[in-house]
Amino acid sequence: MTSQIVEINNSENIDARESRERGTSVFPQLEALLPLISKPIQYVGGELNAVTKPWEQAIVHWALMYPDAYEVGAPNQGVQILYEVLNEQPDVLAERTYSVWPDLEALMREHQVPAFTVDAHRSVADFDLLGLSFSTELGYTNMLTALSLANIPLHAVDRDDHPIVVAGGHAAFNPEPIAQFIDAAVLGDGEEAVLLISNIVKAWINAGRPGGREGVLLELARTGCVYIPQFYDVEYLPDGRIKRVVPNRADVPSRITKFTLMDLDAWPYPKAPLVPLAETVHERMSVEIFRGCTRGCRFCQAGMITRPVRERSITSIAEMVENGLEKTGFEEVGLLSLSSADHSEIGDLARNLADRYEETQTSLSLPSTRVDAFNVDLANELSRNGRRSGLTFAPEGGSERIRRVINKLVSEEDLIRTVTTAYGAGWRNVKLYFMCGLPTETDEDILQIATMAKEVIRAGREASGRRDIKCTVSIGGFVPKPHTPFQWAAQLDHEATDARLHKLKDAIRNDKEFGKAIGLRYHDGKPGIVEGILSRGDRRVGNIIETVWKNGARFDGWGEYFSFDRWMESAQYALEGTGVDVDWFTTRERDYTEVLPWDHLDSGLDSEWLWEDWQDALAEVAVDDCRWTPCFDCGVCEQMDTEIQVGPTGVTDLPMPIPRVSPVLAQ
Amino acid sequence: MANKPPDRNLAPIAQKLRVRYAKRGRLRFSSHRDFQRALERALRRAGVPMAYSAGFSPHPKISYSNSAPTGVASEAEYVEIGVTRHCDPTKIRVELDAALPNGLDVIEVIEATSRDFSARLEASLWEMEISAPVQEVARAVEALLGASEVLVERMTKSGKRVFDARSAILLMESVAQSAVTAPAHTQMPPECVILHVVVRHIVPSVRPDDVLTALKQVGTLEPRKPVRVTRLAQGPLSEESISIEDPFDPDRVLV
Question: By C-alpha distance, which of A463, A335, A473 is closest to A395?
Answer without folding.
Answer: A473
